[in-house]
Specification:
By secondary structure, the protein is α+β, with helices and mostly antiparallel strands. The chain folds into 3 domains: 2-97; 105-219, Immunoglobulin-like (Sandwich), CATH 2.60.40; 237-408, no CATH class. It is 25% helix and 34% strand. The chain has 7 helices and 26 strands. The protein has helices at 2-16, 29-60, 63-98, 109-112, 200-203, 214-219, 300-303; strands spanning 105-107, 116-125, 132-140, 144-146, 149-157, 162-171, 176-178, 190-194, 206-212, 242-243, 245-249, 256-260, 269-272, 277-281, 292-293, 307-308, 314-317, 319-324, 327-330, 333-335, 350-358, 362-366, 373-379, 382-391, 394-398, 407-408. The strands form 6 sheets. Strands 10, 15, 16, 17, 20, 21, 22, 23, 24, 25 and 26 form an 11-stranded mixed sheet that branches. A 4-stranded mixed sheet has the order 1-9-5-6. A hairpin with a 6-residue loop joins strand 22 (362-366) and strand 23 (373-379). Helix 1 packs across helix 2 (29-60) and helix 2 packs antiparallel against helix 3. The relative contact order is 0.11.
């Protein structure tokens, strides 16, 4: 159903006309993504609101009102489905144009010193999911022994800013002798899914993929800024990466939410839930009794490997517990499937958003030596939006962007 919603939503922009911005290499695919994602979120929200109204009417409404609302929901879905064919055709045409194109590639001086080289790189667009892949062939430039190896890259915009970065496993923990000219990898072709769906408007400015070393990867920061956006390309939740209130709706009908600032479900105050809708006004300041040391925010073993501007900073995290009679369950915000953490699906991104209070400004950046997480946090005094994303078994923790389509999930 989710994939259908994405396809259906995007067709609205295509059928309404208007010149879609075109990238020299990727065509209109980034622009189509940039239009479909917010429309998907809007459609999904409207549908959820209608479903909540349907649940309420089932309990107390008239049969006539219930039938009218159900009919309207059915008609809206049918209207979207009828237009989906047009989008499929447009996306398929773009996929055929992009698939097989050479990836505009560059290599840093440090990467050129490695015992391997990227022999070929082609774009491929999946005509079912419309994910854009790089299909790479990596070969050895000399004989050497190899236990494990990762390929690192960054995506560069036309103005030289960094759109994205990533890595891919070539070999994992199987010591072997590599011979000059041999293809490196568990397969002859390494497929890497490019995250156009994270911030698609940035990919309209795509210029090239630059292959880099692990150290260069750790030092690389995302610097692309949306010059057409009044918010400077920053997240629109709360107008920036800081927030003063949290609101939304949950899928089921609950009476109230318990609000607390510590992992233990001790209510500091409650807020009412009306037909799934709620709003939490966050306190401007928290007493020190609610605050925890930074080592509770990030594991102390990992924290030692990170660049932290003030290690005396303290934090508190917002926890919401849905209450219905005697039932309590933690409500999370995001698009999250715990099982995704244990799969090999590198083209799937799951995310969770936390709302975290800090008692001072602090920055936390870097990659722990033995962890598979990357931190890029620019935290301000007050309440911050912190996003956890999982892609290809690596976690990305940042305050720089909010995934579109995130919503409040079922209480757990």
């Amino acid at each position: 159903m989710k994939k259908i919603v994405i396809i259906i939503s995007a067709i609205l922009m295509v059928s309404c006309g208007g010149g879609l911005k075109k990238n020299d290499v990727l065509g209109t695919i980034p622009a189509l993504y940039a239009e479909m994602i917010p429309l998907e979120a809007e459609y999904t929200q409207k549908r959820e609101e209608t479903m909540i109204r349907l649940e309420a009417l089932e309990e107390s409404g008239s049969e006539k009102d219930l039938e009218a609302l159900a009919k309207r929901l059915h008609n809206e879905e049918q209207k979207y489905r009828k237009q989906a064919v047009k989008l499929l055709s447009a996306m398929k045409d773009e996929a055929e144009k992009v698939t097989g194109k050479d990836v505009p590639a560059a290599f840093t001086e440090a990467f050129a010193q490695l015992p391997c080289a990227v022999a070929s790189s082609k774009f491929r667009v999946d005509t079912v999911t419309y994910y854009v892949y790089m299909d790479l062939s990596v070969v050895a430039k000399e004989d050497f022994f190899l236990r494990s190896m990762e390929l690192h890259y960054r995506v560069v915009a036309t103005d030289g800013s960094i759109i994205s970065k990533g890595e891919a496993d070539l070999l994992s923990f199987n010591t072997r002798a590599i011979v000059q000219g041999q293809t490196i990898g568990n397969k002859d072709v390494i497929s890497i899914a490019l995250p156009l769906h994270e911030k698609p408007e940035s990919w309209i400015d795509f210029a090239k993929v630059e292959f880099i070393t692990k150290d260069e990867y750790a030092q690389t920061r995302i610097t692309w800024v949306d010059k057409s956006s009044s918010s400077g390309g920053r997240s629109r939740i709360g107008g920036s990466s800081t927030v003063s209130k949290v609101s939304g709706n949950i899928q089921a009908t609950y009476q109230q939410l318990c609000v607390c600032f510590y992992v233990l479900p001790e209510c500091h105050f409650t807020v009412p839930v009306s037909r799934g809708q709620f709003t939490v006004d966050l306190p401007k300041e928290l007493n020190v009794e609610y605050l925890q040391d930074l080592s509770e925010f990030i594991d102390e073993d990992f924290l030692d490997d990170l660049q932290v501007s003030d290690r005396d900073a303290m934090f508190a995290k917002l926890y919401l517990y849905a209450i219905n009679d005697n039932y309590q369950g933690n409500v999370y915000y995001g698009k999250y499937d715990p099982q995704a953490l244990f799969t090999e699906k590198g083209d799937e991104i799951e995310n969770v958003t936390d709302f975290v209070y800090f008692d001072r400004d602090v920055t936390i950046t870097g990659i722990p030596e033995y962890g598979r997480a990357e931190y890029n946090l620019n935290l301000k005094k007050g309440w911050n939006v912190v996003v956890y994303q999982v892609n290809d078994r690596r976690a990305y923790v940042s305050t720089s962007s909010i995934p579109r389509g995130a919503k409040w999930g079922e209480p757990e």
